[in-house]
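If you are new to this repository, start here. Below is one unmodified record pulled from the training split, so you can see the exact layout before writing a loader.
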Amino acid sequence: KTVLGVIGSSDNTKTFTLPASYNCCTFGNLRDVNFQNGTMYLPTYRTLGAVDCFMFLHGTLYLFQVTTAASHSIVKNKLEELINLAKECQKVESVELVFVIPHWREASYFNKAQPMTADRKIVRFTGELEKDTKDTLQKAINALSNLAEDKKKKLQDLWDKNKSVSTSRLRRELKELFAKRLREETGYQDDLLETWSVPRLLATYTCRDVSPPEPVVKQSIWVVETGDMPDVSRA
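And here is the target side for that same chain:
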């Protein structure tokens, strides 16, 4: 058991218990992560851009940033991308950003939220995502207004066939159409749009004219003895 001091409340602590025999999995591409419950994920490359490692556990996405620095900013769009990908795989009820720090840095972090920074690339946060089901695919077809009749009929025919090959092709074509529209209609220049799930593209497209909701991320600290600092530290 590890006690975390919750930033923003000096008298509020909670107990976070890692599973006794949790899995640890490395990855080279963040999009290959399936966010299995109780698995700690660590990147094989040096900089993930958001945090050092993460775990989805019982509805909460725990993001761990190991540091010995007096402060540590987080790249906002990288964090949002990680949360978006987690929501494509699991029902994420809450997000906890945990700064793992040595005991002699506690005063620098306790009750002091760390800053969020942003680089030039903007990631739209879509909030809750629907499951990638046949019903969602139908909603996606319906959302593509002003689509040529022959193109819409082709999509609908693929949906009606209800076969795995046809459904896979339908998803691929929907992704291409949504990516094209987002770039043409909103100037959205994310070069990975075609790799997004259909529910995420649908949510982004349908809320393109409104400000997307900000992710609610609670910041906490995990104070450890210097000799017990995890070796995933980049600081």
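Two things worth knowing about this chain: The chain has a mean pLDDT of 79. The first helix runs from residue 76 to 89.
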